[in-house]
Amino acid sequence: MHDSAYSGITKCFNDYRAIRCDYFGVPIRTYKDLEVFQFSYRLALDVSKTARAFPAFEQFEIARQLRRASRSIAANVVEGWAKRSSTAEFRRYLQIAIGSCDECKFWIQMSKDEGYMPEAKYRELLNEFNRLGAMLNSLWTRWRSGGS
């Protein structure tokens, strides 16, 4: 995809209140059309791959918690989208996703401090979770201006 097309899509998805994307005139029909879902899903896959490299004795501790929290973000976007006819309900699921995003930041910090994650990977993931948190907060704030 060309950068200009991607910029248009990004601009389109920046206003999540819209049911149609003005750039292509394509309706947002499923959660898969939401950039925040796509980003959170890819990030959960990256986290899962990273956590598999942790020591065996941590696979049921830090690695499991990190995988669970990262997967929860995308899952809550999906569940909230299914209930989007109620603004309050959709926003509630987004708030849970925001909490899981913050939890991931804790677990990656712990992983780095325990010596299971290199500094470079820690910084990369921290930046990605910060970006995802901003996306979730933006969607939460903008979704139908908080009306019900």
Question: Can you give a write-up of this model?
Answer:
It is a single chain. With 148 residues, the chain is mostly helical. The chain has one domain: Up-down Bundle (de novo design (two linked rop proteins)). Helix content is 68%, strand content 3%. It is built from five helices and two strands; from the N terminus they run H-E-E-H-H-H-H. It has a two-stranded antiparallel sheet. Helix 2 packs antiparallel against helix 3, helix 2 runs antiparallel to helix 5 and helix 4 runs antiparallel to helix 5. The N terminus is likely disordered.
- The strands making up the biggest β-sheet line up spatially as 1-2
Structural classification = mainly alpha
Give the CA-CA distance, first to last residue: 37 Å
Biggest sheet descriptor: 2 strands, antiparallel
**In CATH terms, what is the architecture?**
Up-down Bundle
Radius of gyration: 16 Å
- CATH structural fold name: de novo design (two linked rop proteins)
Percent of sequence in beta strands:
under 5%
**Broad CATH class:** Mainly Alpha
Count of structural domains: 1
Report the count of strand segments: 2
Number of helices: 5
Principal-axis shape equals elongated
> What level of helicity do the residues show?
55-70%
Q: Which spans have pLDDT < 50 for at least 5 consecutive residues? A: 1-23
Under CATH, the homologous superfamily reads 23S rRNA-intervening sequence
